From TrEMBL:
Function, in words: Catalyzes the decarboxylative condensation of pimeloyl-[acyl-carrier protein] and L-alanine to produce 8-amino-7-oxononanoate (AON), [acyl-carrier protein], and carbon dioxide.
Species annotation: Dissulfurispira thermophila
Domain Aminotransferase class I/classII large: 36-373
Cofactor: pyridoxal 5'-phosphate
Gene, per the UniProt record: bioF
Keywords for the protein's UniProt record, in alphabetical order: Biotin biosynthesis, Pyridoxal phosphate, Transferase
EC number: 2.3.1.47
GO biological process, one term: biotin biosynthetic process
This protein's name: 8-amino-7-ketopelargonate synthase
Length: 378
């Protein structure tokens, strides 16, 4: 079964396989098959996933609350830590209330279908994350796709369409291109057309706006019409996701979002880790400063070497080096230099690329090694 399909994937250089890693390594390193690489593949932008006080917080929570949550949140799976994290993340995001979801994927596929349903219209950026696309597919609303970051196109389309409710959905930082949605213009369009704005701030949280995310970055005040989704799994180095929004929206999600209702709650240790990570991000801005300094150093080096990086504006930097085969070879060559920077291929993206993500944990030497490896592989 499926052998022809698998053979076709192999033939087209699109076969994926899992590379599991070994135990914790020094910062920004990854151990694969007992070889240590400098890791440029992680969304752990602030290097928090191995932070001692976060690990300690998780360990303490296991001792206090046990490991598995044992049930969904609406039954008995939640702890007082869940409620505390929701309160803190809502404050951090400047919104009324928040709700924790088990992952960013779950948040999008659970919330979008109940925020826009039959008779409604969703306007979605063509490069939105797969979880948004799947959330839109599950919704009975009409879907209208606008060209990537093209506010004129969005404006044209939103004028034409008439439905009960309109909702515009966009990634804030696009996960594969590393560019940023023009949120100011998008939010103005939403205000003009009385549309809900749903933002996926998975890669903006902890990275933009002193860590508070894209709204703060653009100086946009949260309103009841703005719904902010974000994750604890990237810059916060933990796991899980949240939606921060108006109280009524949160009540509605608690009562209707299937991925929230019908799934076991996140364990308390994960919640304790997210709480500690949030505490660190709020109190130590030096990590975000390092992240952006590293990003600028790498980006300048890439420009000096003449690499094409699409429109990257953030620590996510796509490097376009050729077709799928060339990109795979490039990534393999980098591995010979002990650099782990994976090739991203269709169908995840249309244009194959090496997706580099630089973090606060990289050193100047790490970045120079990457640049050297890239110069050699070119
Ligand atoms: C923009 C965006 N949204 C959602 C997700 C899903 O988040 P999670 O990994 O927590 O499921 C990702 C993860 O890759 C993402 O990049």
């Amino acid at each position: 079964m499926f052998s022809d399909e698998i053979e076709r994937l192999r033939h087209d250089n699109l076969f994926r396989h899992i590379k599991d890693r070994g135990p914790i390594c020094p910062p920004a390193r990854i151990l694969i098959n007992n070889i240590e690489y400098i890791n440029f593949s992680s969304n752990d932008y602030l290097g928090l996933s191995n932070h001692p006080s976060i690990i300690e917080a998780a360990n303490k929570a296991i001792e206090k609350y046990g490991l598995g949550a044992g049930a969904s949140r609406l039954l008995s799976g939640g702890t007082e830590l869940h409620a505390t994290l929701e309160k803190k993340i809502a404050e951090f995001k400047g919104s009324d209330a928040a709700l924790i979801f088990n992952s960013g994927y779950t948040a999008n596929i659970s919330a979008i279908p109940v925020l826009a349903s039959e008779g409604d219209i969703i306007f979605s950026d063509e490069l939105n994350h797969a979880s948004i696309i799947d959330g839109c597919r599950l919704s009975k609303a009409k879907k209208v796709i606008y060209r990537h970051r093209d506010v004129e196109h969005l404006s044209e389309l939103i004028k034409k369409e008439h439905g009960k409710r309109k909702m515009v959905i966009t990634d804030t930082v696009f996960s594969m291109d590393g560019d940023i949605a023009p949120l100011k213009e998008i939010s103005d369009i939403c205000t003009q057309h009385d549309a809900i704005l749903y933002i996926d701030d998975a890669h903006g949280t902890g990275v933009l706006g002193s860590g508070r995310g894209a709204l703060t970055h653009f100086g946009i005040k949260p309103t009841p019409q703005i719904i902010q989704m974000g994750t604890f799994s990237k810059a916060l180095g933990s796991y899980g996701a949240f939606i921060a929004a108006d109280k009524n929206v949160i009540q509605w999600l608690i009562n209707t979002a299937r991925g929230f209702i019908y799934s076991t709650a996140l364990p308390a240790c994960v919640i304790a880790a997210s709480l500690e990570a949030l505490n660190i991000v709020q109190n130590d801005l030096s990590l975000i400063k390092n992240l952006w300094q590293n990003r600028e150093m790498l980006f300048k080096g890439l420009m000096d070497l003449g690499f094409y990086t699409i429109n990257s504006e953030t620590p996510i930097i796509p490097i376009v080096v050729g077709d799928t085969n060339t990109t795979l070879k490039f990534s393999e060559l980098l591995m010979h230099h002990n650099i782990y920077a994976p090739a991203i291929r269709p169908p995840t993206v249309k244009v194959p690329r090496i997706r580099v993500s630089v973090t606060a944990a990289h050193t100047e030497e790490d970045i120079n090694k990457l640049l050297k490896g890239l110069r050699f592989a070119k």
